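A quick aside before the break. I want you to see a complete sequence-to-structure record at least once, exactly as it would be stored in a machine-readable document. Don't worry about memorizing anything.
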Amino acid sequence: MPLHAILRRTISRRIISLSFWVFIAWGTVGIGAELTVRDVTDKSIGIYEGDRPVLVYNHGVMTGDHVPEKDHRKTRACYIHPVYGLDGEMLTEDFPRDHYHHHGVFWTWPYVAVGGKTYDLWQGTGMDDRFVKWLEREEGPDSVMLGVENGWFVGEKKVMIEKVWITVHPADDKSQSFDVRLELTANDQPVSLQGRGGKSYGGLTMRFQSLPRQDVTITVPEGRTEADLKMTPLKWVDYSAKYPNREKMSGATVMIHRKHPDFPPMWLTRHYGPQCVGWPGVEARTLSPGKSVQLDYRIRIHRDLPELKQLKAAYADYIGPKEVTATGVTATGEPE
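That is the input. The structure line, written in tokens, reads:
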């Protein structure tokens, strides 16, 4: 074969190969891109993969412009919003008109008893969550982590120390996960937490965008569910929906680590948006000063509507292999 023909064939093959990898790079959001932490405003800090936003943590006081001035739910702080899908869609909602007090990914309780009085942190009545200091801001090749200390305040008195760690992992072509660890420590007197009677909500909640019910699918370990569930023990809940201007569905799975207290905890699910972990549920739990409780969760963002087996595999990947003790019982208390 003449030399010019060999060169032409070699160059053509390299162009095709290069085009293939360019297609792959554009078709798989975030793969290989650097995870970084950036200040969005003086109140918010964002985590990005390349130029694509993953989530924003709001440490400062945020205001709902459409909320009436005299409504105590007009302001809040110390929560995650927005959480973005892999294609830039905003999954979460803040200050929704149906429930002004819902705010992205948050962790609050309707009954917080301390000092002989009961307050409502869920709606921000008599108690609020405030930023205290940063604990960590770490960027690495495999993840980024934010660590923050907040406080629950009644007036100017801090009654609870709240430490939060948010760890974001790299995306693949179908999903991306971030972990949320909460550490709660009563400050100088006992604090009791309790969920709403008959519903159990109180704890970590992910408020998704309000969308038409026919565009929403909720999946739990037993499969798809058309019903809104109350007082139901679950290891995870997936909320998938067809978001505005999107041809395909997307969403996120909220997962509970198997070392979570009272595993699996109760849940309240709602097709209109909020997916609520209920811990400790309707029975109050008292936290003693100086003794911390740790609550671990993973939120897995995904494209499309996952099959049940895919969701179960993702959860198994999160919790890892079972730990077997000398008595032959796993960490979850299940016999081998």
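Two observations worth writing down. Residues 3-28, 331-336 have pLDDT under 50 and may be disordered. The chain is about 10% helix and 40% strand. We'll return to this after the break.
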